[in-house]
Amino acid sequence: SSKADPAAIKAAVADLLALKAEFKTVTGKDYVAPGQGSSKKKKKGGDGGAPKPKEGGEVSKKQANKDARKKAKAEAQAKAAAEREEKRKAELAAQGTAATVESDASLFGDAPLITSHEMTDKVWVDIKNLSPEMADVERYVRGRMHVSRKQGKGCFFLLRQGLYTVQGVLFQGKNVSKQMVAYLAEIPPESVVDIRAVIRVAPELIKAATQSSVELHVLEVHVISKAAPVPFQLDDAARPDGDESGAGVGQDTRLNYRWVDTRTPANQAIFNITSGVGGLFREFLHKRGFVEIHTPKINMGAAEGGAEIFHVDYFNQKACLAQSPQLYKQMVAACGGFEKVYEVGPVFRAENSNTHRHLCEFTGLDMEMTFKEHYYEVLQVFSDLFIFIFDQLNRRYRDELETIRAQHPFEDLKFLQPSLRLSFAEGVAMLNEAGFSQDPNGDLSTENEKALGKLVKDKYDTDFFMMDKYPLAARPFYTMPCPENPEASNSYDFFIRGEEIMSGAQRIHDVALIVERAKAHGIPEAGIQSYIDAFKHGAEPHGGGGVGLERVVMLFLGLKNIRKASMFPRDPTRLTP
Predict the structure, then answer these.
(1) Domain count across the chain
(2) Catalytic residue among 217, 258, 288, 358
(3) Cis bond leading into 577, ω under 30°?
(4) Lowest CB count within 10 Å: 146, 242, 531, 574, which one?
């Protein structure tokens, strides 16, 4: 057994002395342990403790015997109680515990497996909601053990939940044994832990915790799920970019253990932002009267010419994974009577592009709408949409943005209201004047996109802009030609920090022109017959575009690689996890 704790022994001795004093008060005699009674004879003439005679007469012999029996019984009961307490105190002192920890085993330990057996009336609180206003309130908190440190007879630890952390403390004393302190100190990092604690105002700000003004004074601690050693330290994975003071974690290692990597504060924040972009996209369009739709992702043949496709065996038929919901959006908005629709869903591109900005599967934010006179009506909606998203991200996600900035420093995105719009010809002129070579009838290269983004930032002080009137030859078959210039089209791209995030256009809604443009692109009419048929029964003028969610997040946050903005990225080399 372990060495007895001096403080516990001292407390046990004090309790024994108090019991002896109580024994003497009740019996009138000093307590003597069994087998240690005095062998000395009573003094001659002693009364032996018999009751003294009352005034005016002697006590009867019968009454004296009765009182003697009663007194002897009380002495025996008190003596037995004292012996039991002495034995109990000695046992507790030998264990190094205090007298008040008889229920200590229920206050800590590994919890039974949660199988949804029952629901209780426990009151829980999220770490992010802990504040000085909750001082002296008792609550349950669940989180991951971030780090723990034993110090003397106590233990300090950080409990983490998502972006937020709080310090907890536990010291040996009343209802807290040294075994309980040791158990808490030895909980493996990343284990899931339940804490019952009293919330206290911290004596001074705790710099290591996000909830720096409060701390948890632990009453109970139970491990819900004990973590095995993690493949890398989260502190290393959370190290700021460029910090060479310690070991870093490589991208492949992060992605191989993504379920651990996503626990870092920056990654928690990045994917909260990703969720926010999708939510704001829906929120804005819903308020504008758009209807969310869901289109098939397994199609017959390619949805459009150009990009490579993933082939699928569909019950002995040739099929492919959708590259875009484009044709279905048109059918529903322009031909199906919905007029304004959007979709959030997966997009598949079988492009063997191992770059910082390409994925084989990403989340598309697509929008399509009819217009009355000019496709600039569509451009205005897109401009308002992006401004709304950027503005609300800055307003609603301040904590997340600062958390990301702490690990991945970036400059706030600059954008104008209304958004800057350039023609393709103006963009080409800016590039040529700056010494870059750009074909006026060809699409922009990645290098020229970057260069143009820098030129626009220097001239207009904005990271976000749109450019329209792209060359007709560089756009899909369903793009409406420009009425003023037969070599141009009513199409557009949007850019953030010199990289394209969206392509769109006015679509052709005339059957004869659709067939003509399809032939010009070498697309057999039979392959798009169902699409052509949809426009035979009346179609409204319309336009739209598709946005890559992960690319928007990457560029808004100034991240260097799109894989940081994809929870489980799919590129030409990665299929797991």
Answers:
(1) 3
(2) 358
(3) yes
(4) 242
55 is catalytic: no
DSSP 548: E
**Could you confirm whether 421 is annotated as catalytic?**
no
Specify whether 141 is located in the same domain as 270: no
- Tell me whether residue 484 is one of the annotated catalytic residues: no
Burial class of residue 173 in the structure, from the number of CB atoms within 10 Å of its CB (0-12 exposed, 13-18 middle, 19+ buried): middle
Q: pLDDT tens across 500-518, in order?
A: 999 999 999 999 999 999 9
Residue among 343, 500, 507, 550 flagged as catalytic: 500
Is 254 marked active-site?
Answer: no
Q: Is 258 a catalytic residue?
A: no
The whole-model pTM stands at 0.79
Among 139, 254, 263, 349, the active-site one is: 349
Q: What is the CATH number of the domain that holds 158?
A: 2.40.50.140
* Residue 349 is a catalytic residue: yes
Other beta carbons within 10 angstroms of residue 259's beta carbon come to 9
* CB contact set of 185 (below 8 Å; sequence gap of 6+): 148, 149, 150, 155, 157
Shared domain check, 519 and 430:
yes
Catalytic (active site) residue 551: yes
The arithmetic mean of pLDDT across residues 553-572, rounded, is: 97
Distance between CA atoms of residues 207 and 113, nearest Å: 35
Give the model confidence (pLDDT) of 343-380 as tens digits: 999 999 999 999 999 999 999 999 999 999 999 999 99
